[in-house]
Amino acid sequence: MLLISNVLLVTNIVQVDKEEAYGSYNKSYNIIDLIGYLSTLEDNPISSHSNAQMDYDTSGDYSQINRKFNIDISPLHLWGKGPVVDLIIRSGVHRYVEFKCLQKSYMFVDQKFVSVPCSQADVFSNKFLSLTEKRMIMKFFKSIQNEEEYDPDLSFQELLIQMGLNEKLQSFILYSIVMLDKSSPPISVHEGMGKLNLYVSSLGTYGSTPFLYPLFGASDLSQAFCRLSAVYGATFILRNGVEILEDEEETFAGVKITDGDEIKAKYFISNYDNFPLSEYIEENLPSVQYSICITNKSLEPKSDIMFAAVPPGTVENINSIFITQLDGGMRVVPDGYYVVYLHTTYTESAQSNLENLVHTLFCGDDDEFDDKPKLLFSSYYTKKNRSHAPLPGNMTIIPDIEQHISFSEAYDVATKIFLSLYPDQEIMPEVPNPEDIIFEPEEEEQVENSM
After folding, report:
1. Is 269 left (phi over 0), alpha (psi -120 to 50) or beta?
2. How many Å apart are CA 157 and CA 31, to the nearest integer?
3. How confident is the model over 13-70, as pLDDT tens digits?
4. Backbone torsions φ then ψ of 272, nearest 5 degrees
5. Rounded distance, CA 254 to CA 249, Å?
6. What count of other Cβ atoms lies within 10 Å of the Cβ of residue 177?
7. What is the C-alpha separation between 450 and 266, in angstroms, rounded?
8. Burial classification of residue 93, based on how many CB atoms lie within 10 Å of its CB (0-12 exposed, 13-18 middle, 19 or more buried)
């Protein structure tokens, strides 16, 4: 429900959530609640996640530092020049939430992190590329300004080959900038150029990488949207699930929530976690494999908050693996700790692929390689991919978000739902700054004052 509330500001809405905090599958957990959540997944069939495994010191006492953890169960970035940032600025949500730009973007290759060459300075300071390769990639970036010059029948992958880029440069572009998987079908030149331009245009907007991440975790972005929605009349009810959907002439007329109140409405929107009629829901293969690691040392000495791509085949992985590291300055872990998120498109070997990478990056208590970051906590789990049987026309189910890089898909889904319900209304019109609003007294009050 992250963006639905905000794009529906022009209507009166009531949002009911059975959880104690905002965010749903974008929720952030303290360390004790995270352990509890992952421990109960197998007994919670309606959860967004499943197949959890954890490894940590069970004798450890987290009570003193528990509240300093804000661990995201579905970590997502924002593009510096993406539509979500535009929405945050236009709507005024930026008044309620803070972000930081990640310091560096890397590709993990040959057992080390190599800076992604996407600006002229990055290219010429990159020691991983030869002088010839530096010239080739600079020529490529200069020649992509007009996609109309290229054969539309070519795929983007074929275009890179046609332009003479070797496998190393293709890998940088496909997996670290465009962020494709090995199993991804070929994409068009138009789509490839769009992804490439989004990355390049986002560079330098707020810092040295194109990625923004919310302080205090993704839940803080959720509460910021809810807070603005409440200002404009939305009602939010936490710790209440929907018990009954009242059916009337092939539509849903209303709902009854846990505390007994009944709510009537014209339209109903739900995600799978809060939808009470489980007989309508069908579970497909999971879409994403995640790992959360907590450590005492940065993966890369020069970068405390960073993003990295691990190309297919690096650690016997079938698909690309993406890494996000955050530190105590992001208010997601205590000072001196780091949280490292790893995620990849789901395959049957996805967990073993992530385990291989974890063993490559970290050391355990008995590991002799003390220069590696020490692994204090690790977990593995999958994100479900669900569908549903046909429903009455006034009920919309928010699909499980399959994209695991940014919030862009959530924005697209919210926009699509809004336009299906209110095709003639503007999506999230710009709201005035509260400090600029002048409240005129009512006419009766003016008469009384004049007397």
Report:
1. beta
2. 42
3. 888 888 888 778 788 999 999 999 999 887 777 788 888 999 887 767 788 899 999 9
4. -65, -35
5. 12
6. 21
7. 44
8. buried
Beta bridge partners of 16: 237
Tell me the pLDDT tens digit for each residue of 144-183: 776 667 887 889 999 999 999 999 999 999 999 999 987 7
- Residues 15 and 236 sit within 8 Å (Cβ to Cβ): yes
Whether the model clears a pTM of 0.85, i.e. scores above it, the answer is: yes
User: Pairing mode, if any, of strands 14-17 and 235-238?
Assistant: parallel
Question: Measured between alpha carbons, how far is 308 from 345 in angstroms, rounded to an integer?
Answer: 15
In three-state form (DSSP H/G/I as H, E/B as E, the rest C), the secondary structure along the chain is CCCHHHHCCCCCCEEEECCCCCCHHHCEECHHHHHHHHHCHHHCCCCCEEEEEEEECCCCCCCCCHHHCCEECCCCEEECCCHHHHHHHHHCHHHCCCEEECCEEEEEECCEEEECCCCHHHHHHCCCCCHHHHHHHHHHHHHCCCHHHCCCCCEHHHHHHHCCCCHHHHHHHHHHHCCCCCCCCCCEHHHHHHHHHHHHHHCCCCCCCCEEEECCCHHHHHHHHHHHHHHCCCEEEECCCEEEEEEECCEEEEEEECCCCEEECCCEEEEHHHCCCHHHEEECCCCEEEEEEEECCCCECCECCEEEEECCCCCCCCCCEEEEEEEHHHCCCCCCCEEEEEEEECCCCHHHHHHHHHHHHCECCCCCCCCCCEEEEEEEEEECCEEECCCCCCEEEECCCCCCCECHHHHHHHHHHHHHHCCCCCCCCCCCCHHHCCCCCCHHHHHHHHC
Q: For residue 171, which phi and psi values (nearest 5 degrees)?
A: -65, -45
